[in-house]
Amino acid sequence: MKIRHFRWFFGGVSLLFIIILANCQQKKEIPRDGPGTLIVNSEVSGDIYIDGTDTGTKIKSNGTVIINDVANGDTIVTVKTAEGVLYGSKEPALVRPGETVEVLVEKAFMVKAPEPELIPEPAAVEIAEEPIEITEEPQPAPPPTPLADPAETAYKQGLDNLNKGEYELAAGNFTEAIRLNANYADAYISRGTVYYIRGQSVRAKTDWNRAAQINNNYASFARAYENSRISEYDKAIADFTDAINRGICKDLALELRGSCYYQKGDHTRALADYNQALQANPRLPVVLVNRGELYMDTGEYAKALADFNQALRMSPKYVNAFAYRGLYYNAILDYDKALTDASSGIRYAVKNSTEFANVYLVRGQSYLYKNDTEKSKADFNRVITDCAERLRADATDYEAYQGRAVAYSDGGDNSGALKDYGEFIKYAPKKVFGYSNRGWSYFNQGDNNKALADFNEAVRLNPKSANALFGRSNIYFKLEDYPRALSDVNAALQINPKSAQYFHHRGVIYDYQGNTDKAIEDFSTAVRLEPKYAWAYAYRGSIYYYVKEDNDKALADYNNVLRLRPNDTNLTYAWYTRGLIFDERKEYAKALADFDKVLQFDPEHEDAKSARRKTQAKLASQ
After folding, report:
1. In this structure, how many other beta carbons lie within 10 angstroms of the beta carbon of residue 509?
2. In sequence order, what are the residues at sequence separation of 6 or more whose Cβ sits closer than 8 angstroms to the Cβ of residue 248?
3. What's the rounded Cα separation, in Å, for the pair 85 and 81?
């Protein structure tokens, strides 16, 4: 038996059909305007339908059906199983009179009905006297092995690479499957998953929408993702729930529904969905990273770190896992580890994606905290350039505005940040992030009224946004409205009861209210939660020195400050105050060294100049 291959073109699409002719039948192509017979082998499972719907001719898995004549005009012919799987073509084939159609249904054969042949009468022959040698009748050749579908092969390779965390290879495999079969819905779903994991959300949306166009089963999932991107969280949750109930992309639907709950401030439901998503698919690291982010927001840093570590064990090249673990290390002031993680992620980051922006932002922030402004500026500029390229491709990519705005803000360009946050809000008007972060930019510019308006809107959208409540508390503090400042930071602490930053801020409020005992208590909690929190030591040291007159405790705190942040010009007063303590202890050489450090940072520091002259006089009189 032979297999013949040829192409049939229509509508600009090339489809490959295979004719498998039985060795016992005539090898002739079937004119579509003539009669023919479809013979279905018993290995085909399920019922078979002709004409593309279950209202067409129905046959069992072992039998024949006659394809009727077509007098004139075009006709549509498809073959599918009862489960809805089409063979030979993923789309109905348009057949015109006089053309030829061949359809492969696994082991099915399209052949022309055999015509009876005239068998001539046997001629008279003489029987030979010698014996006739009888040879063994040749056995029929075994049936051919079905050819593997190359699109399916590429798709399975993609799934394997996806599970291994080889995202670039997986994306290439799925793209090849789509090239071979432009209507491969599952390949679009899986490639969209890769894009989503890597932070290429616009591409993910495009692929998932295409899958929904091909297969309506994916419609609710694709629609839900689109609504989640425009902050229509209730609509998105309803559609994700529908997809989950029908088993459509269940693991991703659970993760994405959890993210909607998270954006709404419902941490309990978000956590429940993340946990279910991991049960449905333990090899989906994006769930671990998102759950880790949630744990960081609620102050459960040990759990957050465990999730980031697990994500990287599962997928050692997962860029966002490096980015978020780096963010965690920055939060606990371990900048060297943050730098290591960000640099590792940069090795695998794909350009024009949120993952690319994330790792460079984390590294830039780490350099900034270490006072390496040149390197931090270089990293922020990389983010700005990459986001600009994304925006040239799609001016509505609000995540690109987000990344560039953060880079501008951290680089000290508040004007650029404000402009991009405005664009972010334009395209994502219901996302809390835009308002809360723009509020911080206004705060840095000293525009308290605009900052307060943005924080109010952020709190309105999500009353459980700890960042927005904390920001508004800072505005009220600047406006000397201490009761409101205290109320907002207390609300933030209810959401995140393990934030050293929030305790430090509340301690400052108590200090300004004259409640120094509560202030010391909060500063002590801050350094217990985060032993490297230099500012908490600095404020507590000031209370010990100026209010409690406890020089020993003050000196211990200032020693910690200057050990942790020896080159931070914002902590110049720590050097000055410690110099005063050394002077009082008659350790004049140490006092002079501290005053010199102050003048190195600020040559016009009059108090340091005066204190230095007095200490020099005391030293000279000894």
Report:
1. 23
2. 217, 218, 220, 221
3. 5
Question: Closest Cα partner for 440 from 462, 473, 464, 463?
Answer: 473
Q: How far is CA 275 from the centre of its chain?
A: 17
Cα-based distances in Å from 226 to 223, 256, 473: 5, 11, 34
Alpha carbon distance 483, 423 (integer Å) = 34
Classify residue 567 by burial, with Cβ atoms within 10 Å: 0-12, 13-18, 19+. exposed
Dump the DSSP string for 199-238. T-HHHHHHHHHHHHHH-GGGHHHHHHHHHHHTT-HHHHHH
Question: What would the pLDDT profile of 419-468 be if each residue is shown by its tens digit?
Answer: 999 999 999 998 899 999 999 999 999 999 999 999 999 999 999 899 99
Distance CA 28, CA 111 (A): 7
Residues (pLDDT < 50) of the chain are 1-129, 132, 134
Q: What is the pTM of this model?
A: 0.69
Distance CA 228, CA 325 (A): 25
Nearest residue to 83 (alpha-carbon basis) of 207, 193, 217, 181: 217
- CA–CA dist 558, 556 (Å, integer): 6
Give the C-alpha distances (Å, rounded to integers) separating 153 from 38, 177, 180, 190.
Answer: 28, 8, 10, 14
